[in-house]
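note to self: dont lose this again. the chain is below, predicted strucutre after it. 378 aa total, dont forget to put it in the shared folder this time
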Amino acid sequence: MVNEHGVSRVVQHKDYYLRGGDMTVLVENHLYRIHSYFFERESLFFRQKLLAGPSGDGEDRGSNDTNAYTLDDVKSEDFARFLWVFYNPKYSVYEASLDVWLSILRLATRWGFNNVKELTVRELEKLDIECVDKISIYHEYNISKLYLIPSYIAIVKRGVPLTFTEGVKLGMETVLRIADARERARQRASESGIRTPSLDDFEDSDVEVLVREVFGLGSRPASPTPTGASTIPNGTPGSTIKLNTPPKANGAPAPRNGVSADTAAKTSVDSMRTFTTAMGSQVSTVQPAAAPPSTTPAPPPQTATTTPAAAPATKPGASTTSTVKSVPLPPLQPAADKDKDLLLDKAGNKSHLPETPKSANNPLPKFAGMGWSPGALF
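---
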């Protein structure tokens, strides 16, 4: 309102001069009585203003209409729109036009209201804004270019080039990047064998890859690879933690190193039987050293062929001639006390071993020509 002298008369704002307010702000010719809490909470700009101290007359700044804070270069209409964010009568329902949100975005960016700016961007994404205008707005207020990927794709794929007015809005850098993306798309179409390439022949996903490359927005994040076995922390790839094998049912002991107790016991018994058989074969096939070599051919083996064992050590000067023959083995039977000193001769008949007299150095008797004592087996 202007008086007769051409000076605007200061009036209280019809919506935002609140009785419970604790801060008075003068914007153009309107007085706003609002709550300082919202401005102290989010804006460094207003925190510095509120901490500036009292005015020259000793009164706190903004405490009354005569000592109000003055906001320069701000329109009263824009400031009222900005206050609507905090005093919206419809909780969490913000329905406004593009011009209203641009007024809010301008002041939120200027005063550092980050939460208000995020709210503005969310609401702008719900509106249908022409691609060139949206790119220009988001670049001006430093909003992430990731929101602009659909707009970039639409401009790259459209059939007509940018006009002069559109180029001025976008700026030289953006115009050059869009031209680069369009040229790359045509080049790839020519390389694929298309004689007259058209940008409509490209899928949006293919153009998106070009846009991300040209504008430096990076590629899409890779899908997480499902992990397999549990790996040792800070270990080499592929190293896994192996748990002990659970015990068998009915209290049976768990196998160690992949071999069960029953299998180990059975293997031990088989080893003892093999050792006994080998020793019995050695006793029955080794001939006394004094006996001359036999010229009679031995009968062909019928049951089993034994491998000659290493010849036991003999005294110096003793004859080492021995003959190993394969003879059929009789079934193993418990030896009786009276047969413990019997051996088999060439024909398979039992015969007593000649026993040599005991010596002073060796109290145990040695079997003639054998070169070993019973204690050598144990």
